[in-house]
Fold these 3 entries.
Entry 1:
Amino acid sequence: MSGEAERSGADVGDRDAQISALTDLVEALTRKLRRLEDRVNQLVARPGPESSADEDAAAEPAPWVWFSPPAAAESDPAGDGDPRNTVDNFVAWYNVTFVGVDGSRARPIPQCWSQHPGLAMEVATLAYSWRAANVGPNATERDAQHWLHQWRPGFADRLAREWGSPDCLDGDHRDDGRARADRHEIAEQHA
């Protein structure tokens, strides 16, 4: 009988230890859930471009944007919203802002960029990724730095190696026979 009493005493001690461990685990999970809930509430309270009452505020450059950003068709309420205008403006702005010194890999985007399908796709995504990282209430310093550290150098490298011929990069377009109408030109032709 004393063996049975010892076992029940050991079971109670083991059960108390298990309850204590579970209580600690539940408290840790509760703290994590509260932090997550606080973060979700912060994100919900942050106005997005579609919920902003003031459209001009939605297109404001972030404080770290040192130079005036390129004009975007999407920011002009009187404009037609043609994304080609956004990309064209970005190309001009990029060439003024990011072209390196003589001999560097950072070359200007050639005037004939839209006549090279792969380059046109990359330039368009470069333009819109820059805007997402640097303009409007959802722009973040982290995204802007990522763009500068990853997107731009990768683009500059591919521009020099893959997308343009040396002639195009020197300002003398060489037709490679791959130019084609973009979806906006096709829509205009069918309108």
Note: Residues 1-45 form one domain.
Entry 2:
Amino acid sequence: MMASAKQLRALLADPSKIIVCPGVYDGLTARIALNAGFECLYMTGAGTTMSRLGMPDLGVATLNDMRENAGMIAGLNRKIPLIADADTGYGGALMVGRTTHQYIQAGVAAFHLEDQVVNKRCGHLRNKEIVDEEVYLSRIRAAVNARAEADADIVIIARTDALQSLGFDSAVSRLKAAIAIGADVAFLEGFTSKEEGRKVCQELAPTPVLLNMVAGGVTPAFTVQEAQDVGFRIIIFPGFALGPVFKSVVLAAKQLKETGSVEESDAKAEAESSPKALFMAVGLKEAMEFDVAAGGTMYANGV
């Protein structure tokens, strides 16, 4: 089996491809995306923070929170690369190095590091604080050096949030400097026009550029085809699962509170969300087959 980072590099090496990554944040949403046939997943930091801590994405998630979640998701299918948010690296150069080693050990194929202060905020909120360029580059350098020490691979994605405060040219200059010291992919967060999206891809070519497609965020909406036409090589959808889950559970909570029932109005929909259907979605069939193959009898007659 090809290592996940190697698999991701193979996808990036095909200039005719754009890698589409649905944003997942737990085992169930990851399984749903895997079952749909996506060839790469993205672990959203906001989703991880909300689901594990019940808090907003304001820099409160730790390395342990993120690595444990990433390792669980990556382990569901080692054939499918996982790109994971690594925020600021969770400290100075030593901590960024530790983060790199921990993500490699967790089976993560790629991660992105940003240039916000440690007490960061979601990239589509206002008034982000940015560290000096040398501090940012020390984070990228620490990740590059740690990867070399580990004698193992991980794709390093350099993200900058500097556009809002420093402007386009300075933000792109930071990305060019990060690429020069070993970053593999560039990520300009929060651009506000499609022309800026096209321009960053042109300025940084042939380095692959990632597009963060946040529904309702400051970046204009791109379809996958539009993103590919502009020149992006990776597109992530962090809200892929968060938005639908939020809407559906809010409605279910309202129904239960007002009617005392959470029954589906549609028989087909009810069957699709039955306990057995849910268990099948997260690997019930494979688990039973594994048990039987090992000589177990508990599931020999099904469930």
Note: Residues 263-303 form one domain.
Entry 3:
Amino acid sequence: MTVEPQTRTTDREDIAKRLLRSSAKASFDPLVEIDWDAPVDPDRYAIRPERISLYGTELWESLTEEQRKELSRQEIASVASIGIWFETILMQMLVRHAYDRDPTSNHVQYAYTEVADECRHSVMFAKLLGKLDAPYYRLDPVAHFLGKVFKTISNGPLTFSGALFVEEILDQLQREIMADEELEPLTRAVSRIHVVEEARHMRYAREEFARDWNKRGPVVQHYSRIMLSLVVYYSATRLINPAVYKRVGLDPREARKAARRNPHWIDTKTWAARKVVDTLDRAGAISGPGRYFWRKAGLLGRRGASAPTTAGPEAQRA
């Protein structure tokens, strides 16, 4: 299956040259740009309440306003922990991608530039955890092991489709956070830096995926669909670590079950993934048995439900 027009590529060296220029003009040092000494405001949400995994459930109604705001901070910390985990994987995959290529090319030099960006982002997310009084929410042993496997066996289409998936999910959530002046200033500042720099990373990944995918034969494409669906499933179903619920006095198992069944949370994940789902689906990367895992992860919407709007559940506050 060929990639449709919206995902056709430009010249590899030309786009890398432009991305390098953009990096030189708009890159940030989070240690300098963010006021890490400012206290976190306990009276503000870290993310819109409509995006919290338990929003609209009976457990949500049982929480006090203070508990809800604390849960928002812990859920952002959980997402940041996933971000650190995947960015560490991505950095290794990008170095492998560059290993066999000409370092004098713009393409490889931008890969190195992105690695430098991801290093800063991981430090930024780690400092965010400390400011939110949150632990590093470690993945369960199975997911952690699969991450090791994925970074080792990943091919070109898997590297860039996997990167695009995680980056697009975070980008959608963070664009919303940075634009909402009612939210905690620290999470808005972190989101702003990540959104600006990840826009380049997503362009690089989108182009490289499209370029590589069309060169692959049916066997490799089938393998890549299955592997990608597993990466997507384990990433999306672990965005919120069950341990966050314990921090607000809830039973982790009960809360996790409630979140998995929560239509608001499913709609939020569908909304956050809508752009990358469209890109990969049009390319033919979401089909066959792998599509089952995309749906099971809550990324293709609820059966029988209308597609969520770009406004998402927050429109209910209006």
Note: Residues 1-7, 306-318 have pLDDT under 50 and may be disordered.
